[in-house]
Amino acid sequence: MRLRARVSGRVQGVGYRASVHRRISRLNVVGYVRNMPDGSVELDVQGEKAEVEKALKEAWEGSPFSAVESVETEELTEPSGYGSFVIER
């Protein structure tokens, strides 16, 4: 299963990507987390359904200084091409 999620709220400049990366990297998924020009953060996560669902829960958790307001997802069908879960700059 592969999902792309757009996370909105106070998620840039508050350690969100690093915090989410640290926790999602422990799961058996691949993909990335990156800042978007509109102030949101994009997550692309691929793996077994249960692991992807755990990753989405981590997206809601964020960092101690973040405030997630929404997580919008879309399911993708093509493979991500990533070998691990990374922070894209």
Write a compact overview of the structure shown:
The chain has 89 residues and is of the alpha+beta class.
- Note the beta-strand portion: 35-45%
Number of helices: 2
How many beta strands in the DSSP annotation? 5
Biggest β-sheet: strands ordered side by side in the sheet:
4-1-3-2-5
The helix/strand series, from N terminus to C terminus, equals EHEEHEE
Distance between the termini: 24 Å
Helix content: 10-25%
- Can you tell me the residue ranges where pLDDT is under 50 for at least 5 consecutive residues? none
By secondary-structure content and strand pairing, the structural class works out as: alpha+beta
Computed over alpha carbons, the radius of gyration is: 12 Å
Mean pLDDT: 97
Shape: globular
Biggest sheet descriptor: 5 strands, mixed
Task: Summarize the structure in words.
With 89 residues, this protein is an alpha+beta fold. The protein has two helices and five strands; from the N terminus they run βαββαββ. A five-stranded mixed β-sheet has the order 4-1-3-2-5, covered by helices on one side. Strand 2 and strand 3 (41-47) form a beta hairpin. The protein is globular and about 30 Å long. The mean pLDDT is 97.
Topology:
Blueprint: E1 2-10, H1 16-24, E2 29-35, E3 41-47, H2 49-61, E4 67-76, E5 85-87
Parallel strand pairs: 2-5
Antiparallel strand pairs: 1-3, 1-4, 2-3
Q: Which terms would index this structure?
A:
40% strand, 89 residues, alpha+beta, five-stranded mixed sheet, 25% helix, 2 helices
